[in-house]
Design a protein that fits this description.
five-stranded antiparallel β-sheet; 22% strand; 16 strands; single chain; Jelly Rolls; alpha+beta; seven-stranded mixed β-sheet
């Protein structure tokens, strides 16, 4: 674990320098009162107040979720999914409910398997055995502890058993990226084990995907910002002090309160006129749905275990296509070919968006032939000039 810390944040010599281990219990208490479980700051009369909407998988059908919430890109908390309810149907309880307790993981076959808990300066994964990480989880005093956030648990036999311990809820099962091979599609599912005080700093999910996050054990604190709130506001530009790190605990305890104070004092400024943010606590057994384009950050209030996946559905296809065609050019062409077979109306939509923007796909055979022809013509002109 010492080596993992050194590789992940080599510039930080003292991981306990801010003594947040001592201040953290008071923070947890402040956000755990019944009146503080959900709080929001709205500076726009048009901003909805009931975000996230709290729903129950015992009563919520898949069609209702897709039409009434996902299509409107409205964040939700869905209760009872891992306990055997999905799409208003009584199904089988997830194995994760019992197998993913910290006590069960300590003696499981996964204890000797190495999981990713960070990255070094070259972007390479920092990995540690689960048994060592769990020892660290209980005993560390770090301000912002390392966090198992592993997307490779499906790559070997021992860790692949985790896939059998949960199911993708029916609300999110229509994932269009499944048309692309596992090898080609970007990372999209993560097994999470987080000590208290660890978390993820504010971000938008990649390629405009939406996400779901199911908590099996523990409590997490979330903050959400609607897509119209500028990134510079969400990030707290100009409000982060030189001695503060880009870590979730600093964001929640220090930077977020400053952002809200500035938003209230500068509410007439263009950046803050329609400001809105939503804070809430996620409890064990709850699944958070984050729509495309929503900035969000997460802080573990206790030791936690969970799973999260990003996805593209027909409801957020346009936004995802616009990002994928430039961010994953080869994959986008392969994806479009599969959409022609499985979802021709979406393939037509993708081509319409390309035509609207005069966008040329790099790996379209027609585009490749055009570039080759242009290159031959250039060579001929150079030869004639000589």
């Amino acid at each position: 674990m010492q080596r993992a810390r050194r590789l992940h944040r080599p510039f930080l010599k003292n991981w306990e320098r801010d003594k947040l281990y001592e201040a953290f219990p008071s923070f947890v208490k402040s956000v755990s009162c019944s009146t503080e479980e959900y709080r929001f700051l709205l500076l726009s009369e048009n901003a909805p107040q009931q975000i996230p909407v709290v729903l129950d998988a015992k009563k919520l059908t898949t069609a209702e979720f897709n039409q009434d919430y996902e299509a409107r890109e409205e964040p939700c908390v869905i209760q009872n999914i891992p306990y055997g309810y999905d799409g208003a149907k009584n199904t089988k309880e997830w194995g994760a409910v019992t197998k993913w307790s910290l006590q069960a993981l300590e003696v499981s076959s996964l204890r000797k398997r190495a999981f990713k808990c960070g990255e070094d300066d070259d972007g390479k994964s920092v990995r540690v055995k689960l048994k060592h990480f769990l020892q660290y989880l209980y005993k560390n005093y770090d301000d912002s502890p390392l966090y198992v956030f592993d997307s490779t648990f499906d790559e070997d036999g021992s860790a692949k058993s985790l896939l059998a311990d949960y199911r993708v809820p029916s609300y999110f099962a229509d994932d269009l990226f499944r048309l692309v091979s596992e090898a080609r599609r970007p990372p999209y599912r993560w097994f999470l084990v987080g000590p208290e005080r660890s978390g993820t700093c504010v971000h938008i999910d990649p390629l405009a995907t939406s996400a779901w996050n199911t908590l099996i054990h523990g409590k997490k604190r979330w903050v959400l910002f609607p897509p119209h709130v500028p990134k510079r506001v969400v990030k707290g530009r100009g409000l982060v002090r030189s001695d503060e790190d880009d870590e979730a605990i600093h964001y929640f305890m220090n930077i977020l309160p400053r952002i809200k104070r500035r938003a209230e004092s500068l509410r007439s400024h263009d950046d803050y006129r329609d400001f809105a943010c939503y804070e809430f606590t996620q409890n064990a057994g709850e699944t958070v749905y984050i729509p495309t384009g929503w900035h969000h950050a997460v802080l573990n209030l206790t030791h936690t275990v969970g799973v999260t996946q990003n996805f593209c559905s027909p409801r957020n296809f346009d936004q995802v296509w616009l990002k994928t065609r430039t961010g994953r050019k080869r994959m986008a062409w392969k994806w479009l070919c599969q959409l022609d077979k499985e979802y021709p109306h979406l393939a037509e939509r993708a081509r319409h968006l390309n035509e609207r923007d005069n966008f040329r796909m790099k790996y379209d055979p027609g585009e490749i032939k055009r570039r080759e022809t242009e290159e031959r013509m250039r060579k001929m002109r150079r030869k004639n000039q000589v």
